[in-house]
């Protein structure tokens, strides 16, 4: 009879041996991650912090692992590739690179281009004016932002688009009302990212169904019973809307934010003293 504990130790030993034979294992390998975390704690901007981690990681790959500069650039572009014949290691390490993210990046660029086209043709202005005329309070604006993100999820079938488009549409209204755009960020995350897994034809829902080994072909709708169990996904928007109506955790824009809006030339919707919108 095979001892399960012995099998586990054999597996661990095989993984450890494979890692040691392919890499130099040292505590110094943690330095790139510590650099990123240190810069994040110092409140440096995300992009420079991540770029610093990439540079330090590339340097350590050359110094500790004996990789060439050409190999480092190739890994950064195409991702790392290794064949150890151990599923756990190959699954963990064969990934990464800019090319693996091109689908996401291209979708964001398309969304931004679409937003630019809406702005240039005046469609975005019409949409903003329509939003201002209907959503006259912060609470109603927050509900509209969450609803728009969710509707985009339903129609477009992609969570990235459900974040990019409402963010472009509603940010001038939030600025005009004097509220921090952090409220908008939270709203479109609740209606976009969190609601995505609850929509079967959405990219998020397709991933969940695939990861859980479910299927809805042939009318097998019982596999959708995971939806009411995804408490965080559907309760977060309700809690966020409740906060908006009672005024909890709904910060006004700080003076620093207002100065940043002015210096960057960000669009700010205009409202009359009585709260009615100024339609341009």
Structure summarized in a few sentences:
67% of the residues lie in helices and 0% in strands.
Mean pLDDT: 83
Class from helix and strand fractions: mainly alpha
Question: Which stretches are low in confidence, meaning pLDDT under 50 for 5 or more residues running?
Answer: none
Determine Rg (CA atoms, Å). 24 Å
Number of domains: 2
Find the count of extended strands (DSSP E, 2+ residues): 0
Query: What is the strand content?
Result: under 5%
Tally of individual helices: 14
Distance between the termini: 80 Å
Query: How much helix is in the residues?
Result: 55-70%
Question: Mind describing the biggest β-sheet?
Answer: none
Spatial shape: globular
Order of helices and strands: HHHHHHHHHHHHHH
Structural commentary:
With 280 residues, the protein is mainly α. It folds into 2 domains: 4-100, no CATH class; 102-264, no CATH class. Helices cover 67% and strands 0% of the residues. The chain contains 14 helices and no strands. The protein has helices at residues 4-22, 31-41, 46-64, 69-78, 87-93, 102-121, 123-134, 138-156, 159-177, 181-193, 203-211, 226-229, 231-246, 255-264. Helix 10 runs antiparallel to helix 13. The protein is globular, with a radius of gyration of 24 Å. The relative contact order is 0.07.
